[in-house]
Every structure is written in C-alpha cells, then in structure tokens.
Recover the amino acids of this structure.
C-alpha cells in the first residue's frame, strides 16, 4: 500500500529525493485564547531548559508591540523575554496541547500572553482570529523538547519504552502508521532523506522482515532492531537516533512546516521586525539559511543579522548538552521598497 505523508524539503545541494508516500499529517486546528493573570513576577522551574537565552535576547529591541512565539513549549524563552523586554502582547503558539498547558502555568504571572493551539504554518489564521494585523518580533524554536522526550507515552525517545507515536499535536497519523504501511523502498528513502542514515536500506529491510513476523509496537523494540543492524557498544550517539529523527520529521511534516512558517513570518512581520529561528539539526538549519538568504536578496525582504549561525558558548554546552547542536539565525524585516543591506556583526560565538 503506497502512502504519502507530507512534502518535506531535502537539502538543495543533495541529489536525494523524498519518498512519495501518500497521506498527510492532520492539522491540529487553531484555537486562540487570551490569558489574563497577575502581573506579579515569579520564578518558575521549567521542565525544559531553553537554549541561547542571552544570545537570543540581544537581538530583540527593548520595546516590542506584538511578539509571536511560534513554539511556546514550556515557556522558557517566553519567561525570559517577558521579564527583560517591554512587550505589549505576547502571542504564544504550539501544536502540542501538553506544552500549552505547561506554558500557561509557567507564564501565569504575565497578563499580556495570548495562547493558540496551532501549527506555526497556520500563524496567519491565528493572527487573523486574534485581530493582530502584523507582528514586531518572531521566534521559532524547532524540534522536540526535553519534556516531550521524557514522556514515554509520546513515543519520541528510545530511552523510554512506549508506543511508536511521535505526534506533536497528539492527533492524525502516527509514526507507527508509517512503519506499518510504508514499503521497504519507501522506508529506506525516508531514513536516508530525513535522517541522513547511511545504512537506511539495511535497516528498512530488517524492519519489513520483522513486521511480517510480528508487529513493531514499542520504541524499545524499534531501537533494538536498529541496534542489531548498526551495532552499539553502549556509548556515544545511539544508533537509532537518525531513524527516530526521520520518523518524527515525517510524522509531523516538520520541514515543510518550517519553510512555510518562515515564509509566512517574513510576510506577516512589520518593517524592522526581528525574526529568529533556533534549529537543532542540519536539515532544519539548511532550510532557515536558504529561506533567509533568498529573502535577503529581494527588495523589501530582510537584512541578515547573523551571517553564520550563532552557537552556544562552551559553558552553556557543559550545563545543557542539548545546547551543543543549537543554531540561531536572525534577520530583520526591511521597509517596503528598501534595498537589501548587510546586517550588524553579532558579538556571540558563530559557526
């Protein structure tokens, strides 16, 4: 049975082609609500440590009319920005209902936050519903959070045994649906394109042979099958990392959503608005780099504030190992008709 999951972008420089699979992840829908709470400041212990806080904050001006946070998560970046910047209204999006619930609790001290359960590719519909014509700052923090990885029932991690789910929105197609119905060739192509897995064909063959004998039902079962193909001495990066990445990206249509979201953010941003994206693997970063550079070449587009991505300092990486793979790219929206110009040089570590 040929399935088609969503379009996703392969690196332009690569000759790889995406698997032609047939159904698309369901949209989570948009539900916009306003939050009103005490303005009293409070310190909240978050289940997820935000990365590049100082670096990110340095790019945003002190006074911001409307800030659009496309991936509110646990509210770590939001809490920092709301405490250190004068922001009139903070619009918080997330397709994960669990993340929104945690963010609401974490940001209870702030009375200028409005929430919407939505994919950031649907930001225009959310802003229209909230009657927000344009935004002055945008943040996208891409990928999975620590709290998602720690919830076994979500199926994102091979270190916690659970169902092979991986849905950010908790609705629609799951990763197991892909594993159960994709052909061997489609799985191999998926692991190669979205996971950059060199042994994609061998892994796909083993998985298809296994599912003919018995269902592949749990994350531990899947990880063990990949271990058999690649081998592992219980140290270093787990051999199933790239397979899990590929399935998660496909399940949530992440790369297509990122490109659409970035293009929409540039379109919705007011002149001089700051747009920042934090990515955690090369496929995401290539898309951000390409979209920003294309926009920087057109009149009325953007100015690159980071010629190369900003990365975390070694001290942060030691405290939070997840920060080691984080890359921050930032642009500023130009005035209509403004000719592209080079941006300022940032003082933080670049790579």
């Amino acid at each position: 049975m040929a399935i088609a999951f969503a379009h996703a972008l392969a690196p332009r420089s690569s000759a790889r082609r995406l698997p032609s699979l047939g159904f698309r992840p369901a949209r989570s829908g948009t539900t916009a609500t306003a939050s009103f709470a005490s303005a009293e400041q409070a310190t909240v212990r978050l289940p997820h440590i935000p990365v590049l806080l100082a670096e990110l904050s340095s790019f945003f001006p002190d006074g911001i009319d409307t800030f659009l946070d496309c991936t509110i998560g646990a509210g770590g970046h939001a809490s920092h920005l709301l405490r250190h910047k004068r922001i009139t209204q903070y619009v918080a999006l997330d397709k994960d209902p669990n993340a929104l619930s945690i963010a609401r609790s974490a940001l209870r001290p702030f009375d200028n936050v409005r929430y919407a359960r939505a994919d950031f590719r649907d930001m225009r519909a959310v802003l229209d519903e909230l009657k927000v014509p344009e935004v002055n700052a945008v943040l996208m923090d891409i990928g999975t959070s620590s709290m998602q990885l720690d919830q076994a029932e979500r199926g994102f991690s091979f270190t916690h045994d659970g169902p092979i789910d991986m849905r950010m929105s908790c609705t629609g197609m799951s990763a197991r649906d892909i594993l159960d119905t994709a052909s061997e060739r489609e799985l191999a192509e998926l692991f190669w394109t979205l996971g950059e897995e060199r042994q994609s064909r061998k892994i796909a063959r083993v998985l298809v042979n296994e599912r003919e004998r018995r269902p592949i039902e749990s994350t531990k079962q899947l990880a063990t099958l990949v271990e058999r193909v690649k081998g592992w001495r219980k140290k270093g990066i787990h051999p199933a990392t790239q397979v899990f990445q590929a399935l998660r990206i496909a399940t949530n249509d992440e790369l297509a959503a990122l490109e659409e979201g970035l293009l929409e953010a540039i379109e919705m941003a007011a002149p001089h608005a700051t747009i920042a994206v934090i990515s955690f693997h090369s496929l995401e970063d290539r898309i951000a780099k390409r979209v920003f550079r294309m926009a920087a070449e057109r009149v009325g587009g953007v100015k690159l504030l980071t010629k190369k991505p900003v990365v975390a300092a070694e001290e942060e990486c030691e405290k939070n190992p997840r920060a080691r793979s984080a890359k921050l790219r930032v642009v500023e929206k130009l005035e209509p008709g403004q000719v592209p110009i080079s941006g300022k040089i940032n003082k933080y570590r670049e790579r």
